[in-house]
């Protein structure tokens, strides 16, 4: 009764495709069948957020702000929220930049 990784991966993929949000998320470059259900489970229904900035704040991707005397200083990301979700989004971004050269930051194509 010790399932293999391939069996568990197949079971997760079958279960995930039953949610309507997962195939839609997988249309984004870099989002695979395993991270997509985690995104859905952690964020929940997107209707509870009024705009994309609220989702970024919920995840902890909005930079800290130290403003004084009319000067705005943005610091590091706040790291509030789910570290797993930040990790998965980072992995999706790396996969997209690796698979699709137009998403690469340091593309060698001129």
Which descriptors would you attach to this protein?
single chain, 110 residues, mainly alpha, two-stranded antiparallel ribbon, 6% strand
Q: Can you put this structure into words, describing what you see?
A:
It contains five helices and two strands. The model has no long low-confidence stretch (mean pLDDT 82). The protein starts with a helix and ends in an 11-residue tail after the last helix. It has a two-stranded antiparallel sheet with strand order 1-2. With 110 residues, it is mainly alpha-helical. Strand 1 and strand 2 (74-77) form a beta hairpin. Helix content is 46%, strand content 6%. It has one domain (5-101).
Task: Give me the secondary-structure topology.
Elements: H1 5-16, H2 21-25, H3 35-43, H4 52-59, E1 63-65, E2 74-77, H5 83-99
Antiparallel strand pairs: 1-2
